[in-house]
Design a protein that fits this description.
The complex is a heteropentamer of chains A (about 290), B (about 300), C (about 400), D (about 240) and E (about 260). Chain B has one domain: ABC transporter involved in vitamin B12 uptake, BtuC (Orthogonal Bundle), CATH 1.10.3470. Chain B is globular and about 60 Å long. Chain B has a two-stranded antiparallel sheet. By secondary structure, chain B is mainly alpha-helical. Chain D has two domains: about 160 residues, P-loop containing nucleotide triphosphate hydrolases (Rossmann fold); about 70 residues, no CATH class. Helix content of chain D is about 35%, strand content about 25%. In chain D, strand 4 and strand 5 form a beta hairpin. A six-stranded mixed beta sheet of chain E has the order 6-7-8-3-9-10, sandwiched between helices. A four-stranded antiparallel beta sheet of chain E has the order 2-1-4-5, with helices on one face. With about 260 residues, chain E is an alpha/beta fold. In chain E, helix 3 packs parallel to helix 6 and helix 4 packs antiparallel against helix 6. Classes of the chains: A mainly alpha (about 290), B mainly alpha (about 300), C alpha/beta (about 400), D alpha/beta (about 240), E alpha/beta (about 260). Chains B and C meet through helix 3, helix 6, strand 1, helix 10 and strand 2 of B and helix 1, strand 4, helix 4, helix 5 and helix 8 of C.
């Protein structure tokens, strides 16, 4: 039972890391290697609010979310759209966006270093036990799980029950055809990228309540997010959520039952196994 | 061999001979710069042997490299260094074979991300073994090997990469890989064993990366997992190769040299803003040199040819 | 020329220009003493360096220059100029940067890099060009072999064996006093330093009569440490020892609080001595044991902490910060005594006694053998409670809940 | 036995998820025969081609090439045994030249040439399909119909015993169609066995010795074109009344 | 009313379309005939905004220029394209595909009516509205593509080889459906290799060759023209074993 709850809590953490990238990669088709930096920036927003303004870190959503949205909008509009335009096919765009966002990741680390400094930022918030079925769990992790559920639910509903969501999915499936049904594809892609960035930054806020971060740590989150997105199947929100949960449960089970030293190895092994048996990810579609 | 080929081979041999004299002329900083260039040349060229024709972007270089370094670190006190170099190459090749068997059927981005995770996986396993089984107390590589010798070893490896690359391009294997890179379904339907062909090249590039890791290990004295398996290395190799161009054997080289120098200039001139400027420089490269240096050179040659014709 | 080509031309010009200047190097008048510094500003070790490394360089240079510079033998004063490079936590970069400082910038001295791995990677270069390398953040058990190999390397922070020994000593002492039982839960981060410490500790703990009831490692970068803490708690230990790195030191402590892992002795290694540890956990850290420690009550130490806060705007930590500062003092005093001849400075460091913030320092076999090994948070300060021969240790207290 | 069996499909089934694309299908192709595989869209014709060429593996049943079972072999082995094909959606190798595209067919498969020989052989195939003028052209400059011709030349370059043509004649105008039909007949005259999937009735009538008609994955008729195209069920499911 | 004047398209140095003039009135079916590579698809793509048209020419929809607008605005203006290869959203359901067809502002008020009409026209789609589109057969996907285009309430519907790869029975059904659509008042511009059936339902036709209009006339007169018969309607058997001609036989028609 403990393993189950701990695993779900960790899975929720992972889904917060990966949800934004699912939108950015699934719809806007940008494999954003600077995604982790956006998360760290969001986390820093929360840290700043908490330590200097003495407010709940969650109040930072008020400026982090719109800020990240606008920033990512601009990034896509001015830095990535030229790449989308010049790419002759999806493969070229993939290579170009890997290269460009890798450069961006460097630049972001540099900027954050300037703005935030290089130290660890960590603080205690909701750092108290809450009992679930008699076992103590960190309240901040439980809250993170709830936020994650809410966020995933909203995204899922938004994508499946609204006209805009349907348009986003159409762009994900076939951008050229989407233009033929009056969908403004560049605008939708930009929107998806910006929304993904905002979701990632909000994830950063939530994670900062229990993870220690510094300006250089973004790459760690990017790697995890990439693995989850790929494991779930590109562009599928459900897949990303399931993959997060599987990873969370597997890591916790291995840590509790076998050896904590093998948790990450087990996670990568699992990733490999999934790809071996479903090369297109859990919910992915085979490219024809 | 045609006449032209004979000439090129001779030119390469002469160039290598001249480069081999380099350590007698320069020392210290410039030599360490040369070591960096030589290292990335071997890594990027052997990477491009596999990834150029097949379009499989492998981010696993660090896994093989780190493994090679660890082979040396583990055995440096008991096994002769030369043997270790061979063992490291074999280790890289064997792991590449295992990984290749499992993953080379993955397409596009799935392969990219898996290889990215691979360095992490190998690192986790190596660390766990180190922690639980060998019980070693840190990995020291204390040898008498100087930077000069490292440079020569790398140069020899570079010669080997070019030789193998040249042989592959002329062979059926090279042609098969180009077809695979275009369309694997067609490849299968003209009778190509895609898996074996890709595996062969992946193993070659893994072997080289492992050997390079072993060559570089004495330079670091102390091997840590986070350093031996740094993902940054994998990315840099990919970027330099793509920057140069992967469709020519010499392509990665013309990427490695300007890139190393540019990064060096930035690191030297702007020490407090290194990372920011590296990122910006990087973006400029991606936007301004979309087809790689080779693409630039070739279009320049074409342009020159045209103006000669017209003039 | 259109805009695009113009832009490219500008870039090319900048590139060529900087390349030229790189080759020529900076060969201007050597009025100030030029000192190179290579350490991570980015990468995995950057956050640690931002706490213990860079601020002390800033502080020391500020203090030296404010008083007009170092007072040379001939009575003149020479200011110091620091040339910084970011090695991005990449040993290849460290090596290149040290080479560049030595042969291109031709600096007078180079400060030791940050961390064990990067220091050892650079050691052959320091030795080759005869630069003294006074390390402050490298801990190794190979001190004897390394100092023999590299005649200008100096170690000041201690050895893994000594750290493990002291922890065992404290636990045994508490056990003998009847304050705790002898069951120890031990975890370590599966990275070089953590592995080494755990490896040293196992036989030492055993010999000391302590029973290790839980012994697990976890990978660097583990995001959820609760299975570890749950496992440790289930073993029902009397003491908890974690050979941990900064992010997991915070994570383990937070998790122990949540899980109610209330051992009377609770030890986490690196970063326990960081001010941010106190800031994060507040009063509940009282009684937590950690690596390092200082004697903060000496006047020199008090002045150091005040100055650190004033000049850098941040609090110094209670382990490596003052040690790092002390190595700078050693370098400064050696230069004042014998000038900028590197050979002479190295020899001087080997033989002289220095007055540092850590107390008097005298190197034997290029190492400082008296150092703090274990500290403990007591009423908002991290006091040294065990050392290898230093005076001023506070008595250890037992932890009474979170 | 005057006519031996070149290819024998025995009770083959293929399932995609819940969809049964090919349902217990059996037919045989004789040496040097042109067999038409026809049927409504989605009836499983292309899937059958994919099963024969080894792109897909059947869930049940077996396929024999002569006496050799090929249904459990990978595509490359089947290709080496002398089966070549074209694709419904043309698959040209974009970064290779036209000639290299054709050479690709002659190096690794049934025919294994290398060096000068392969070049000359490939040139002959290109000339045969009327592409002799575009040997060194980049593939990007090809029109759709040229791509089809290059693809056929690539298939011919392996000197196949059995040639699978998947709607190779689709999208041709009448003039082009006639030439295409002539070309296919000349291939048969060389002794090759050909299976074609087509919707173009003129081509089926003039080329095929026999037809197999599929609907919903199953065979609904088999026989000469005249017989099958007059079959009531074929008319109902495939041709519509106007063509009857 | 769609009208193109002096429309040209170049790919690099290659001029794919050269001074094309075509027009389609509401309720009219116009077929474009031509050999492969003549530029038929390029013409539709240029009108739909998928490839840029060169300077100088004009594309007018009801008098307003739609030249080189982004594709989504052209749909908004009332022009829908069923592209070659269908390009439906394979991972979405049939219903979602259709509803997305009405994403244009102009189509939203009449979305319900149009959906009803599309489902009446293609009853098969009504049966399978929850099915994931990619799992349907080629002909059914073609219906989805046409239905989706109709959902945008276009004044002009363009179809690029809709009968390609369809079985004879589906072809017949398709052309019946086009005749039905015409009755709603939409103009239809059809590129069709199946010239016989194309001309059978068309009012007028254009002949396109090497990027130029080389002939134009009523469907009846084109169908009766011997050159058109020879080049596009077949029936003239060629000899065997001759070399493949580089260009198809030229039809010449006075207009």
């Amino acid at each position: 039972m403990d393993i189950l709850i701990t695993g779900v809590l960790l899975g929720a953490t992972y889904s917060l890391i990966a949800m934004g990238l699912t939108l950015q990669y699934g719809v806007a088709r940008i494999m954003n290697l600077a995604n982790g930096e956006m998360l760290v920036a969001g986390a820093f927003g929360a840290f700043w609010v908490f330590t200097t303004q003495k407010l709940s870190p969650f109040t930072s959503v008020a400026f982090v979310a719109p800020g990240a949205f606008v920033l990512n909008w601009l990034i896509y509009r001015f830095l990535l759209r030229p790449l989308v335009r010049r790419a002759k096919n999806r493969g070229m765009l993939e290579v170009d966006s890997i290269l460009a966002t890798f450069g961006m990741a460097f630049a972001f680390v540099g900027i954050m270093l300037l703005v935030f400094g290089g130290e660890y930022f960590t603080y205690s918030y909701l750092d108290e036990p809450v009992a679930i079925f008699g076992s103590p769990f960190g309240l901040n992790r439980v809250v993170a799980c709830l936020v994650s559920v809410a966020l995933c639910g909203l995204l899922y509903l938004g994508l499946n029950a609204t006209r805009t969501g349907m348009a986003l999915r159409a762009v994900a499936v076939d951008p050229a055809a989407a233009g033929l049904v009056a969908i403004d594809v560049p605008r939708m892609s930009t929107f998806a990228f910006a929304l993904g960035g905002a979701v990632t930054a909000v994830g950063g806020i939530v994670l900062s309540t229990f993870l220690t971060m510094d300006a250089s740590i973004g790459i760690v989150f990017t790697m995890k997010a990439l693995i989850i997105v790929i494991m779930g199947g590109v562009g599928d929100v459900r897949g990303a959520i399931i993959a997060s949960l599987i990873l969370g449960l597997a890591e916790t089970a291995v840590a509790s039952l076998i050896d904590p030293g093998l948790t990450l190895a087990a996670a990568y092994l699992l990733f490999l196994l999934v790809l071996l048996f479903r090369p297109e990810g859990l919910f992915g579609r085979r490219q024809s | 061999m045609t006449r032209r080929e004979t000439v090129s081979v001779a030119m390469v041999a002469v160039a290598l001979a001249i480069l081999a004299c380099l350590p007698f002329l320069v020392d210290g900083y410039l030599l360490s710069l040369a070591v960096g260039i030589a290292m990335y040349t071997v890594l990027a060229t052997s990477w491009a042997l596999f990834s150029g024709p097949t379009h499989y972007i492998s981010l696993a270089t660090a896994a093989f490299y780190g493994l090679g370094a660890y082979v040396v670190a583990a055995g440096v006190d008991v096994i002769p260094y030369a043997v270790l170099l061979g063992l490291a190459g074999i280790a890289g090749g064997v792991v590449a074979a295992l990984v290749g068997l499992a993953t080379l059927r993955l397409s596009g981005v799935y392969f990219v991300i898996f290889t990215l995770g691979l360095a992490e996986l190998v690192r986790q396993i190596v660390t766990w073994v180190q922690n639980n089984l060998t019980g070693s107390r840190g990995m020291y590589v204390l040898t008498e090997i100087t930077e000069r010798m490292i440079f020569w070893e790398l140069l020899a490896l570079a010669a080997a990469v070019y030789l193998i690359g040249w042989l592959v391009t002329r062979s059926r294997l090279g042609f098969a890989l180009r077809i695979i890179g275009n369309d694997e379904v067609v490849a299968a339907h003209v009778g190509i064993n895609s898996a074996a062909s890709k595996l062969a090249l992946f193993v070659i590039s893994g072997t080289f990366a492992g050997t390079v890791g072993a060559v570089m290990a004495p330079r670091f004295t102390y091997i840590e997992p986070s350093i031996a398996f740094s993902p940054e290395l994998s990315f840099q190799v990919v970027i330099m190769a793509l920057l140069g161009g992967v469709h020519r054997l010499w392509g990665p080289l013309v990427g490695v040299i300007p890139f190393t120098i540019l990064w060096e200039v930035i690191a030297g001139r702007f020490p407090t803003q290194t990372v920011l400027l590296l990122g910006i420089a990087f973006l400029l490269i991606v936007y301004l040199i979309p087809n790689g240096v080779v693409g630039r050179i070739e279009s320049a040659i074409k342009l020159a040819g045209r103006s000669v014709k017209h003039g | 020329m259109n805009r695009r080509t113009a832009l490219k031309a500008v870039i090319a010009a900048v590139f060529a220009g900087s390349l030229a200047s790189l080759a020529i190097g900076a060969a201007h008048a050597a009025d100030p003493i030029r000192i190179g510094a290579v350490a991570p500003k980015t990468g995995p070790l950057a956050a640690g360096a931002a706490v213990t490394h860079w601020p002390n360089i800033q502080l020391w240079a500020h203090q030296v220059n404010e008083q007009g510079g170092l007072k040379m033998k001939d009575g003149t004063r020479r200011k110091v100029e620091i040339i910084e490079y970011d090695d991005r936590t990449n040993p290849g970069e460290t090596i290149k940067a040290v080479q560049r400082l030595a042969t291109q910038d031709k600096v007078d001295f180079i400060l030791a890099p940050y961390g064990t791995g990067l220091n050892l990677a650079a050691a052959p270069i320091f030795a080759k060009y005869g630069y003294p390398q006074i390390t402050s953040t490298s801990i190794t058990d190979k001190t004897a072999e390394l100092t023999k190999r590299y005649p200008s390397i100096f170690f000041t922070l201690g050895t893994t064996t000594a750290l493990a020994n002291s922890v065992a000593g404290i636990l045994v002492k508490l056990h003998n006093e009847g304050k705790i039982g002898n069951k120890v839960a031990m975890v370590n981060v599966a990275d070089a330093f953590g592995i080494e410490l755990a490896e040293s500790a196992r036989p030492i703990f055993k010999d000391a009569g302590l029973e290790i009831v839980f012994d697990k490692s976890y990978p660097l970068g583990t995001q959820d440490l609760s299975p570890i803490v749950k496992g440790a708690k289930a073993a029902n230990p009397d003491a908890f020892v974690a050979w941990s790195y900064p992010p997991d030191t915070f994570g383990l402590t937070a998790q122990a609080k949540i899980e109610g892992l209330d051992t009377k002795a609770f030890y986490t290694a690196v970063a326990t001595a960081f001010p941010v540890y106190l800031a994060k956990f507040g009063k509940s850290v009282n009684g937590v044991l950690g690596a390092g420690g200082v004697n903060p009550d000496t006047p020199a130490m008090k002045a150091y902490y005040a100055a650190h806060k004033k000049v850098t705007g941040k609090d110094a930590d209670y382990w490596a910060s003052p040690v790092m500062y002390a190595t700078l003092q050693v370098l400064g005093q050696a230069i004042e005594a014998v000038g900028t001849d590197r050979k002479a400075v190295t020899d001087y460091i080997k033989n002289a006694t220095f007055k540092t913030v850590m107390g008097p320092w005298k190197f034997t076999n290029q190492s400082i053998h008296d150092f703090w090994t274990v500290g403990q948070w007591q009423n908002g300060t991290f006091y040294g409670v065990a050392s290898t021969g230093l005076s001023g240790a506070k008595p250890v207290i037992t932890k009474t809940g979170w | 036995m005057a006519e031996s069996t070149a290819l024998d499909v025995q009770g083959v089934s293929k399932r995609f998820g819940g969809l049964l694309a090919v349902d217990d299908l059996s037919f045989a192709v004789r040496e040097n025969e042109v067999l038409g595989l026809i049927g409504p869209n989605g009836s499983g014709k292309t899937t059958v081609m994919n099963l024969i060429s080894g792109l897909l593996k059947p869930n049940g049943g077996e396929i024999f090439l002569g006496d050799r079972k090929i249904s459990d072999r990978p595509a490359r082995i089947i290709a080496r045994a002398g089966v070549a094909r074209t694709f419904q959606l043309v698959r040209i190798l974009p970064s290779l030249t036209v000639l290299e595209n054709v050479i690709a067919g002659a190096v690794f498969g049934h025919k294994r040439l290398w060096g000068r020989a392969v070049r000359q052989f490939a040139l002959r195939q290109l000339e045969r399909v009327g592409m002799g003028h575009a040997v060194d052209a980049p593939t990007a400059s090809l029109t759709y119909i040229d791509e089809k011709r290059v693809e056929l030349a690539r298939a011919l370059a392996s000197d196949p015993r059995i040639l699978l043509l998947d709607e190779w004649l689709a999208g041709l105008n009448p003039t082009e169609l006639q030439i295409g039909i002539d070309l296919i007949s000349s291939l048969r005259e060389e002794g090759r066995t050909i299976i074609l999937v087509e919707h173009v009735m003129d081509a089926i009538r003039s080329l095929c010795d026999r037809c197999v008609v599929m609907n919903s994955g199953a065979k609904i008729a088999e026989g000469t074109p005249e017989q099958t195209l007059a079959d009531r069920e074929v008319i109902r499911a495939y041709l519509g009344d106007e063509h009857a | 009313m769609l009208e193109c004047r002096n429309l040209s398209v170049s790919y690099g140095h290659h001029r794919a379309l050269d001074n094309i003039a075509v027009h389609i009135a509401p309720g009219e079916i116009v077929v474009i005939l031509g050999a492969n590579g003549a530029g038929k698809s390029t013409l539709l793509q240029a009108i739909a905004g998928l490839v840029p048209a060169s300077d100088g020419g004009q594309i007018l929809l009801d008098g307003k220029s739609i030249k080189n607008l982004p594709p989504h605005l052209i749909v908004e203006a009332g022009l829908a394209l069923v592209p070659e290869g269908r390009r439906i959203f394979g991972d979405l359901t049939v219903l979602e595909n259709l509803v997305l067809g009405a994403y244009a502002e102009r189509a939203r008020p009449t979305e319900k009516d149009n959906l009803g009409r599309a489902l009446t026209l293609f009853p098969r789609l009504a049966e399978r509205r929850r099915q994931i589109a990619r799992t349907m057969s080629g002909g059914e996907q073609q219906m989805v593509a046409i239905g989706r285009a109709m959902m945008s309430a276009p004044s002009i519907l363009m179809l690029d080889e809709p009968s390609l790869g369809l079985s004879p029975i589906l072809c017949t059904e398709l052309f019946k459906a086009l005749a039905e659509i015409r009755k709603t008042g939409a103009g239809i511009l059809l590129v069709e290799q199946n010239a016989r059936q194309g001309l059978a339902i068309a009012d007028r036709g254009y002949l396109l060759e090497n990027g130029r209009i080389v002939g134009e006339g009523s469907a009846v007169s084109l169908a009766g023209d011997p050159a058109v018969q020879k080049a596009y309607l077949g029936g003239v058997a060629g000899g065997t074993g001759r070399a493949w001609p580089l260009t198809p036989t030229k039809p010449s028609i006075a207009t």
